[in-house]
């Protein structure tokens, strides 16, 4: 299947950093965005994947007050946690930025100066609540009350969490202050800046109608907004934590977080590359894909596009992939009730991220809310991942290894190749439509076809070279197709095949002929009932983070170690090594297995770098290795040396050389 290669920018919703994400947050934007970005790269699109944390606004200020810290320290603390979780899930962000960074502040200010000069900002009066008890203006999430539309009791001052309607605090019924719970609230008039949506309504409607490829729920929500009639919307707030407004008369205010957060997609792309960012945001026919939750649909179909139109010159999003919600066992995720699967616990389980990525790919809420179920989790893993996909790869490669002199035999193939190629087309069509659940299902149908073909041809009886050739090459196809969903598994399959292909250019070519493979290994293990019970206990616990305690530990100096003689140091043999390959340790949460060329030999070194580096990031790095350390067994794998690294709090950084040197060069 051929199609034109193009520029594609993929974005995932910017999460607030006032808490730790759960699986609903992961499957609601980050995972599907990563899957689609990986696919786009594999088929040859010029693709960049950006995201970041949304750090301004009252949500952050309120959380900082509750935790007795500053907004900056709060954001610094949670940004690291978010970053570590996304790294563990193997998300392939080209840049994961922050809206608190200077580049975003400067870009946002210049952006709105242009919008102001273009005549799309206007002054108007806003009626804002004032808490007499706190002596504080209550912007957005500082105030809660009953939603005037759906009557939800705890609607925020900016948006109702239940019905997703955008709100003004003055419309809330029975409002109260979030900080002190007081209902002694007075509403006062004040002058603010507004984005004049009435001037932009016609262009927005014309643009939305042209996007017939959007999902129905996205188009319907956008049209519902237009039907209600667009009114000027305030873009300024009286807060200290935020981006200062550079317009005369409003210097004491900051930009309302809804107005500046999505601009973070542009500043994050610019931060990625100071020149190439224009290829995606300014060059015509480039495509922008936003992956967001349904509560963010109005912002990405109406408000952010309105800002782009008002600025002039920027590309509007090609597809707003509005996702619904993931529930847990028939109800909502709840940290207070410890109901759910909370991401900070996952590295402490015995399951790699690919197990979770696999099951979550079936629960992506593409057209309606979905539900996490432990029973389904076990069934999907055991029946689909282990018995279907994993079983086909392992049985074919093990049979080839044992019966054909460790080589894929030479053959021209047969009709099965055409059948497989038709199925590959179905996978690609699903990806192009951003129907990711369907893409996964079509891949599993292909591995099922392989299992049935293997059973039908019975090569263990006939020693049929054509059957083995077809099935072994199908393993290559499956290894490449599964990459967007299970990147670590894809790497393992291709390594077992001794295959260097890294994209889908030859996805339909059964081209491994008389080809030597590496010794196969089991990809996955079934999950037992007792393991499910253990997972429930581990993953539902809510970690009690203490920002102050963390800062104290971080700043505490370790006790100096005793002095040693120079002769003792001379006993250490330290060399430069070049990492040839890296993979995840199957039995450990924090370990990677490296193959390192140290000049004298290719060493296997087990290093605690998982979560700090992706395996593909380490390949080719020139590192520092202690080579005369006695070999030791680490969780079933022999380690023949020690890679040197620097440790800064929770961060681990491998030591490298700043210029190319020969592997084996001694460090003295």
Key terms:
single chain; alpha+beta; Isoleucyl-tRNA Synthetase, Domain 1; OB fold (Dihydrolipoamide Acetyltransferase, E2P); five-stranded antiparallel beta sheet; 27 strands; 39% helix; 19% strand
Rg (CA only): 27 Å
How far do the termini sit from each other? 56 Å
Helix content: 25-40%
Arrangement of strands in the largest sheet: 3-2-1-13-14
**pLDDT under 50 segments (min length 5)?**
549-559
Q: How can the largest sheet be summarized?
A: 5 strands, parallel
Q: Average pLDDT, to the nearest integer?
A: 91
Structural category is alpha+beta
Descriptive notes:
It contains 21 helices and 27 strands. Helix 12 packs across helix 16 (465-481) and helix 13 (416-432) packs antiparallel against helix 14 (436-457). It starts with 6 loop residues before the first strand and ends in a 14-residue tail after the last strand. Among the domains are: 110-208 and 217-237, Methionyl-trna Synthetase, domain 2 (Beta Complex); 373-516, Orthogonal Bundle (Isoleucyl-tRNA Synthetase, Domain 1), CATH 1.10.730.10; 566-654, Nucleic acid-binding proteins (OB fold (Dihydrolipoamide Acetyltransferase, E2P)), CATH 2.40.50. It is of the alpha+beta class and 668 residues long. A hairpin with a 4-residue loop joins strand 4 and strand 5 (136-137).
């Amino acid at each position: 299947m051929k199609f034109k290669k193009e520029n594609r920018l993929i974005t995932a919703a910017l999460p607030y950093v006032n808490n730790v994400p759960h699986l609903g947050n992961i499957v609601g934007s980050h995972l599907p965005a990563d899957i689609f970005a990986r696919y786009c790269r594999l088929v040859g699109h010029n693709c960049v994947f950006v995201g970041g944390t949304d750090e301004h606004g009252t949500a952050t200020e309120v959380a900082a007050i509750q935790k007795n810290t500053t907004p900056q320290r709060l954001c610094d603390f949670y940004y690291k946690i978010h970053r570590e979780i996304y790294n563990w899930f193997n998300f392939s962000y080209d840049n994961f930025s922050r809206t608190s960074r200077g580049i975003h502040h400067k870009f946002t200010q210049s952006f709105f100066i242009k919008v102001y000069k273009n005549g799309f900002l206007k002054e108007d009066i806003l009626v804002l609540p004032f808490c007499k008890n706190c002596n504080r203006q209550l912007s957005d999430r500082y105030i809660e009350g009953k939603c005037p539309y759906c009557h939800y009791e705890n609607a925020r001052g900016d948006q109702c969490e239940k019905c997703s309607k955008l709100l003004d605090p003055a419309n809330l019924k029975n409002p109260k202050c979030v900080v002190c719970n007081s209902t002694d609230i007075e509403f006062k008039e004040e002058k603010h800046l507004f984005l004049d949506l009435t001037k932009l309504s016609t262009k927005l409607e014309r643009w939305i109608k042209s996007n017939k490829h959007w999902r129905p729920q996205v188009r319907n929500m956008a049209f519902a907004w237009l039907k209600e009639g667009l009114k000027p919307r305030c873009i300024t707030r009286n807060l200290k934590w935020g981006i200062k407004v550079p317009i005369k008369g409003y210097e004491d205010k900051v930009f309302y977080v809804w107005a500046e957060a999505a601009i973070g997609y542009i500043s994050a792309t610019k931060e990625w590359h100071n020149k190439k960012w224009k290829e995606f945001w300014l060059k015509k026919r480039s495509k922008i894909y936003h992956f967001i939750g349904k509560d963010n649909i109005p912002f990405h179909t109406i408000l952010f596009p309105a800002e782009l139109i008002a600025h002039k010159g920027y590309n509007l999003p090609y597809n707003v992939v509005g996702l619904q919600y993931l529930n847990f066992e028939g109800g909502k995720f709840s940290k207070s009730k410890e109901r759910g699967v909370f991401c900070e616990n996952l590295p402490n389980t015995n399951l790699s991220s690919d197990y979770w990525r696999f099951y979550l790919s079936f629960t992506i809420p593409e057209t309606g809310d979905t539900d996490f179920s432990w029973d389904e989790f076990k069934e999907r893993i055991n029946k689909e991942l282990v018995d279907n996909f994993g079983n086909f790869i392992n049985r074919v490669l093990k049979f080839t290894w044992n019966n054909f002199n460790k080589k894929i035999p030479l053959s021209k193939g047969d009709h099965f190749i055409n059948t497989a190629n038709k199925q590959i087309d179905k996978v690609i069509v699903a990806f192009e439509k951003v129907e990711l659940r369907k893409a996964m299902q079509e891949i599993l149908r292909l591995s099922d076809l392989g299992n049935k073909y293997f059973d039908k041809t019975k090569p263990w009886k006939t020693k049929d070279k054509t059957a083995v050739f077809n099935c072994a090459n199908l393993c290559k196809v499956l290894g490449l197709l599964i990459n967007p969903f299970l990147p670590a598994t894809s790497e393992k399959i291709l390594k077992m095949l001794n295959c260097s292909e890294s994209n889908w250019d030859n996805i339909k070519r059964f081209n491994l002929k008389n080809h030597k493979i590496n010794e196969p290994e089991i990809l996955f293990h079934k999950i037992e009932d007792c393991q499910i019970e253990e997972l429930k206990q581990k993953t539902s616990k809510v970690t009690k983070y203490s920002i102050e305690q963390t800062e104290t530990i971080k700043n505490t100096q370790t006790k100096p170690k005793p002095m040693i003689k120079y002769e003792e140091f001379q006993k250490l043999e330290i060399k430069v090594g070049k990492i040839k390959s890296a993979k995840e340790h199957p039995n450990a949460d924090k370990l990677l297995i490296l193959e390192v060329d140290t000049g004298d030999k290719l060493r296997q070194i087990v290093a605690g770098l998982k979560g700090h580096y992706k395996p593909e990031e380490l390949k080719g790095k020139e590192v520092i290795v202690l080579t005369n350390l006695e070999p030791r067994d680490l969780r079933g794998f022999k380690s023949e040396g020690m890679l040197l690294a620097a440790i800064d709090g929770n961060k681990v950084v491998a030591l490298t050389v700043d210029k190319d040197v020969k592997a084996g060069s001694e460090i003295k």
